[in-house]
Amino acid sequence: MNTMPWTVGGCALQSRLLLGTARYPSLQVLSDAVAACGTQVLTVGLRRLQPELGGGNAFWQRVRALGCHVLPNTAGCHSVQEAVTLAEMAREIFGTPWIKLEVVGDDYTLQPDPFGTVEAAGLLVKSGFQVFAYTTDDLVVARRLQDAGVAAIMPWAAPIGTGRGPLNPYALETLRARLPDAVLVVDAGLGRPSHAAQVMEMGFDAVLLNTAVAEAGDPVRMARAFADATHAGRLAFEATPMTTRQTAQASTPTVGQPFWHNS
Amino acid sequence: MTRRMQVNGRVVDTEAVTLAELLQAQGYDLGAAMACAINSGFVPRTKWAGHELAEGDCIDVIVPVTGG
């Protein structure tokens, strides 16, 4: 059973799992993981190349061959200017207006800088970019990003690469409830498929993963596990889960209960 | 005239006049998937051949890599 398709950055997508391309044991494992999970969006990075080292194009040729939408990031940028310049460079290389905006605010936690992110998002949107803004789970920052016109707001579940899962489910639920019309993608901190299912049940539009798949013992099987969990969570959201109760309520009918009042 | 500048953080003494000449002199394949910035400002590919370099310029040449 398919979930409802969704639209982000001008593209209608069926898969609700966005996948990073880093830390895989090999390019072949990356390719197999992509095939196993059916993702339609791959994130990529940009780094300096010393000409004698080569190497950049082999990766890019492999990614192009996978036929997915490419979402370049501004990972490692610490200022608005760095992020905007890198976004412009990415647009030229990849020929896409999509950019995963990351402005690092703290090197230890890799917590995004909310002020720089909002400022850079505004500049990039005005320059024609479709901005996927990586942020914390702060509601007011998310609202500022929505006001700036970003394509997607991407709150963390936990710091990048920790795999700890949603540390503040209440904040994530609040984001969904208060920004019902925004495209919300949980990005960073998911470690297990159950984490993906949890946030998808909240009504998030998609999840973005990397380390949880790439550093699994079997990345290909884990990619499929995350795809299934993401799908299951979305199906559950669309099906509307039951309301929780404080007290027990028998599911088997009580009318006709045998032996009732026999003694 | 030889001028000193930096390419990806490495000091380079070059007689190249334009960005395109510098890239070729450094061994870059101009047809590859890459982008350039000078002094942290983006320089579109269409301007590589006409962009004249200055003493002390810092040139960044970037390519696609894995990323999350």
Largest interface: A-B, 38 and 27 residues
In spatial order, strands of the major sheet of chain A run: 5-4-3-10-9
| Molecular shape of chain A | globular
Helical fraction of chain A equals 25-40%
Low-confidence stretches of chain B: none
Could you please describe the fold and organization of this structure?
The complex is a heterodimer of chains A (263) and B (68). The model of chain A has no long low-confidence stretch (mean pLDDT 95). Chain A has helices at residues 27-37, 56-66, 80-94, 114-126, 139-148, 169-178, 193-201, 211-214, 219-239, and strands spanning 6-8, 11-13, 17-20, 41-48, 69-72, 98-101, 130-135, 152-155, 185-187, 206-209. Chain A is an alpha/beta fold and 263 residues long. Chain B has one helix spanning 19-25, and strands spanning 3-7, 10-14, 35-38, 41-43, 58-66. The longest helix of chain B has 7 residues, at 19-25. Classes of the chains: A alpha/beta (263), B mainly beta (68). Strand 4 of chain A pairs antiparallel with strand 5 (58-66) of chain B.
